[in-house]
């Protein structure tokens, strides 16, 4: 029998049990023991499901209370000194969460996107003084925990080279510090751990090296070779599987193929054709196992089983053993289609969430072992489903396609250059230097969620719902005026999520009830599903924005989610180019932008936090991506007059290498994360010649800590060493929906105070 496996499985629970337990622990309502018990239950449920589904090789150590990179920081003793350095026994749960969320005396670790996904990881801080120490408790404990259930597992670790490459230089590290200089010390920790896992009964260990799905230097490839030569030659070790995903491995494939490891895991859904070519060029993997990722672990469409079986047949001739698997961990997809009875019955058969993908893997393994006749029924049914999807009237809207065909470059251009628009906007808005604002959302209280749920269930009528939302908007407007903010927002009380809210109102989108996916920590999202051509049947935000603006004389921003983010943070259709789908969404948003302007809204923010994370991992594809991504944003926003100010917002990514593209968006104001990363973007701005206005966030909203006035002032003064006072806005890093009102009021008070203080010392 051909073996089957998965790289990882969703850890959040079908009803978000991990979120509830973790937040209760943070709030002091439950003890450590109760949170740990929830973790054990979730791990047991996942292992037993995988076993009962027929997966032969089951992973462990893929569960995390917050983030797998944070787990690795704790595992190798890389805890920063401001959190106590981990102590002799490693980081306890309090220290672990403090690294993620910060403390009054210790800012949290920086957070950024996991490659080109919407998952966020905590960034290791590395320097010459990073003294790695083996803290083996978690992987060994989970191995033993599964063994007590009678389940043998394969521990999963973040690979040592990827761990270093994902890190950043710690404060105080010398300029140009090379993180890879720490490799030999780190390998000693990994060697000790691998030997301990072998002694505990682990037959295989998986080491994930997705950093090598990106372009890498000769020095980095040499580090990869040294690492696995060292680990592969350990006298007492488990067999080693090195896995990568999200794109092809490039030159790293040959490096790993010639190393003494026992198996490679490759993604054959993204960059798959190139991985196949590289595998053939390397002469295959004689004497090694190939874990073939042929089921897409990042999207929700059913697998073409016949096509995958044909590919697996080819791969069988290139390796000593082929194991069938998803392309990556299934943490990036929802858990179960069967939990979604409200989905359109015509759409449901097209979809595969984590449980369904596991079944596909098992079917493919059986078909590869026993031949296609053994799975003839499954193949015939899948063929029927795929044919039905291709022929469905749900997929194509002729009016959308005709409109897109009539659209040209002129639609993606503002009438005047920024220098002209800036004067018209200042004349209309009359804003002070260093204007203060927020990113969009205000705290989503339990009461607000209850009202939305009651409206969804039909327990209150539309008039009652509207009255409650308008009352909340009026209160948020009053609070912002009281705090002294210059540009206001309506607070988005009606929105469940910045993507799902619009997905519920656009044709061509479907939404789920339980399709949760972890974004970071306890922040889970329900990505909509784009199944057909996209159009806007009616205005989506205009009434709320009109009401908010009528409640104040200060400008209130209209708030939209941009076309790239609407696609990247959804599960996009896989039957047409991503650029085509994004242009369709851009046209739908263009209509909303035009209606907001017609309603008298003078500032319209079109958020694009996904534009950086969505950039292809390989440089060869980036120029084409940025071309259509920028065009889509401009298509959505190019309809407005000069005096209407367009904002965009981006968060928690590395922006330095796309500053020219950010400028090319032609937004009048761009707001970005800067507090958690210590204003590191300032140096990039200095060399980029950025001319538009920018809000460098001075309040890290993902930490419960209230930043003091002095800290915000220091960040603003640092920004003004590069920016003109006329360019700088003052804002938080991101929306405020996950925070409580007490901390938001205090933080925004400090923000306004800091802006006013710094403003007194500058002039136009």
Explain what this protein looks like in three dimensions.
- The protein has about 775 residues and is α/β, with parallel strands linked by helices.
- About 40% of the residues lie in helices and about 15% in strands.
- The protein has a seven-stranded parallel sheet with strand order 1-5-7-8-9-10-11. A six-stranded parallel sheet has the order 16-17-18-19-20-21.
- It is globular, with a radius of gyration of 26 Å.
- The model has no long low-confidence stretch (mean pLDDT about 95).
Question: Could you give a short description of this structure?
Answer:
By secondary structure, the protein is an alpha/beta fold. It has a 7-stranded parallel beta sheet with strand order 1-5-7-8-9-10-11. Strands 16-17-18-19-20-21 form a 6-stranded parallel beta sheet. Strands 2-3 form a two-stranded antiparallel ribbon. The protein is globular and about 70 Å long.
Strand arrangement, major sheet:
1-5-7-8-9-10-11
Please report the number of helical segments: 27
N-end to C-end Cα span = 74 Å
**Integer average pLDDT:** 94
Which stretches of 5+ consecutive residues score pLDDT under 50?
none
Question: How do the helices and strands line up, and which of them pair or pack?
Answer:
Elements: H1 17-26, H2 32-53, E1 58-60, H3 68-75, H4 93-101, E2 111-113, E3 120-122, E4 125-126, H5 137-148, E5 153-158, H6 160-166, E6 168-169, H7 183-199, E7 204-208, H8 218-232, E8 239-243, H9 251-257, E9 263-267, H10 272-281, E10 285-295, H11 305-316, E11 319-326, H12 354-370, H13 376-391, H14 398-406, H15 418-429, H16 446-456, H17 462-483, H18 500-503, E12 507-510, E13 517-520, E14 523-525, E15 529-535, H19 542-550, E16 557-561, H20 563-568, H21 578-598, E17 603-607, H22 610-613, H23 622-637, E18 645-650, H24 659-664, E19 669-672, H25 681-688, E20 693-696, H26 709-719, E21 728-729, H27 741-759
Parallel strand pairs: 1-5, 4-6, 5-7, 7-8, 8-9, 9-10, 10-11, 16-17, 17-18, 18-19, 19-20, 20-21
Antiparallel strand pairs: 2-3, 12-15, 13-14
Helix pairs in contact: 1-2, 7-8, 8-9, 11-12, 16-17, 21-23, 26-27
């Amino acid at each position: 029998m051909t073996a089957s496996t998965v790289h990882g499985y969703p850890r959040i629970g079908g009803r978000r049990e991990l979120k509830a337990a973790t937040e209760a622990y943070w709030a002091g309502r439950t003890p450590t023991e109760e949170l740990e018990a929830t973790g054990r239950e979730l791990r047991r449920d996942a292992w037993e499901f995988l076993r009962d589904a027929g997966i032969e090789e089951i992973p462990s150590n893929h569960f995390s209370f917050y983030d797998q990179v944070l787990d690795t920081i704790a595992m190798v003793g890389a805890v920063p000194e401001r959190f106590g350095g981990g102590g002799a026994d490693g980081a306890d749960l309090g220290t672990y969460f403090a690294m993620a969320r910060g403390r009054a005396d210790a800012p949290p670790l920086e957070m950024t996107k996991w490659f080109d996904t919407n998952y966020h990881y905590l960034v290791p801080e590395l320097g010459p003084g990073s003294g790695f120490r083996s803290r083996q408790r978690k992987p060994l404990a989970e191995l033993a925990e599964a063994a007590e259930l009678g389940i043998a597992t394969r521990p999963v670790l973040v690979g040592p080279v990827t761990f270093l490459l994902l890190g950043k230089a710690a404060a105080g590290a010398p300029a140009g510090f090379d993180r890879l200089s720490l490799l030999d010390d780190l390998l000693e920790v990994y060697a000790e751990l691998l030997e301990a896992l072998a002694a505990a009964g682990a037959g295989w260990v998986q080491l994930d090296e997705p950093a090598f799905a990106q372009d890498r230097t000769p020095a980095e490839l040499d580090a990869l070779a040294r690492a696995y030569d060292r680990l592969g030659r350990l006298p007492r070790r488990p067999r080693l599987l090195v896995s990568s995903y999200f794109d092809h491995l490039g030159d790293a494939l040959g490096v790993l193929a010639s190393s003494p490891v026992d198996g490679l895991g490759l993604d054959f859904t993204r960059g798959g054709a190139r991985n196949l070519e590289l595998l053939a060029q390397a002469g295959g993997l004689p004497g090694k196992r190939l874990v073939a990722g042929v089921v897409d672990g990042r999207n929700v469409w059913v697998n073409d089983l016949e096509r995958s079986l044909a590919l697996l047949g080819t791969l069988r001739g290139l390796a000593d053993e082929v194991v069938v698997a998803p392309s990556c961990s299934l943490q990036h997809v929802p858990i179960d289609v069967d939990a979604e009875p409200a989905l359109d019955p015509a759409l449901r058969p097209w979809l595969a969430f984590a449980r369904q993908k596991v079944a596909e893997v098992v079917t493919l393994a059986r078909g590869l072992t026993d031949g296609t006749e053994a799975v003839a029924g499954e193949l015939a049914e899948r063929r029927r489903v795929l044919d039905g999807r291709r022929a469905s009237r749900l997929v194509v809207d002729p009016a959308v396609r005709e409109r897109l065909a009539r659209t040209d470059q002129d639609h993606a251009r503002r009438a005047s250059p920024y220098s002209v628009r800036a004067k018209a906007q200042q004349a209309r808005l009359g804003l002070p230097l260093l204007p203060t604002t927020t990113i969009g959302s205000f705290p989503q209280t339990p009461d607000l969620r209850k009202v939305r749920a009651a409206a969804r269930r039909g327990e209150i009528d539309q008039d009652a719902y509207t009255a409650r939302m308008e009352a909340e908007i009026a209160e948020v407007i009053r609070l912002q005026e009281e705090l002294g903010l210059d540009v206001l927002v309506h607070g988005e009380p009606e929105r469940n999520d910045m993507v799902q809210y619009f997905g519920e109102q656009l044709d061509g989108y479907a939404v789920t009830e339980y399709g949760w996916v972890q974004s970071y920590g306890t922040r889970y999202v329900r990505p909509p599903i784009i199944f057909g051509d996209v159009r806007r049947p009616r205005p989506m935000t205009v009434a709320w924005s009109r009401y908010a603006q009528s409640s104040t004389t200060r400008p209130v921003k209209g708030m939209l989610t941009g076309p790239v983010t609407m696609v990247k943070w959804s599960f996009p259709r896989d039957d047409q180019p991503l650029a085509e789908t994004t242009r369709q969404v851009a046209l739908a948003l263009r209509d909303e932008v035009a209606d907001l302007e017609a309603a008298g809204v003078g500032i319209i923010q079109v958020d694009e936090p996904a534009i950086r994370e969505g950039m292809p991992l390989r440089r060869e594809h980036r120029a084409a991506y940025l071309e259509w991504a920028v065009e889509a944003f401009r298509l959505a926003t190019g309809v407005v007059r000069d005096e209407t100010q367009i904002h965009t917002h981006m968060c928690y990514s590395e922006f330095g290498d796309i500053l020219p593209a950010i400028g090319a968006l032609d937004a009048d104001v761009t707001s970005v994360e800067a507090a958690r990363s210590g204003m590191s973007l300032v140096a990039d701005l200095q060399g980029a010649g950025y001319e538009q206005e920018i809000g460098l966030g001075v309040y890290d909203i993902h930490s419960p800590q209230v930043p003091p006035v002095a800290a915000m002032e220091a960040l603003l003064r640092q920004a003004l060493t590069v920016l003109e006072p006329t360019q700088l806005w003052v804002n938080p890093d991101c929306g405020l929906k996950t925070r409580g009102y007490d901390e938001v009021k205090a933080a925004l008070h400090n923000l306004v105070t800091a802006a006013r203080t710094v403003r007194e010392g500058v002039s136009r």
